[in-house]
Design brief:
Structural class: mainly alpha
Largest sheet: none
Order of helices and strands: HHHHHHHH
Distance between the termini: 30 Å
Helix content: 40-55%
Number of strands: 0
Shape: globular
Radius of gyration: 18 Å
Strand content: under 5%
Length: about 170
Amino acid sequence: MHSTLVGAMNPCPCGYYGDPFRQCTCPPSLVSRYQKRISGSFIDRVDIFIEVPHIDYEKLADDRLGETSDRVQARVNAARSRQLNRFQGTKLTCNAEMTPTEVREFCQVEESAQSLLKAAMKQLYLSARAFHRILKLARTIADLENGDIIKAQHVAEAVQYRPRSLLT
């Protein structure tokens, strides 16, 4: 059984750092100090960070529909089945449970994805824990697309879910 932690945080004390419509009133040193209140070791243990920008009225009132919940649920169920099949004969039930040894065994990565991962490690100064989290998330993204091998696009998407200003 897995627990899910969902949290929210303003980007700064006033809440408007990076907002395209309202000016942030916080000095840069205060923004930095505020964001550093979350430790790197905690950040390394969180799989997905999503920045939620200001949403215009037009987008909220738009009649166009995205992917239906039923369709999303079908993709998730198929990905979960892939994971259960992959981990048959082990104690694992999903990608999130993999240890670094199991990541090496079950996360086959194409060459261009390896290059992208290497560049991300160097440029973003990622820890070993962050490296393995990215691979496990990329494996899940590939599963959602019914893919056997982790491709560069899967790694790129997984890297995008790392925090922007709290990377180090």
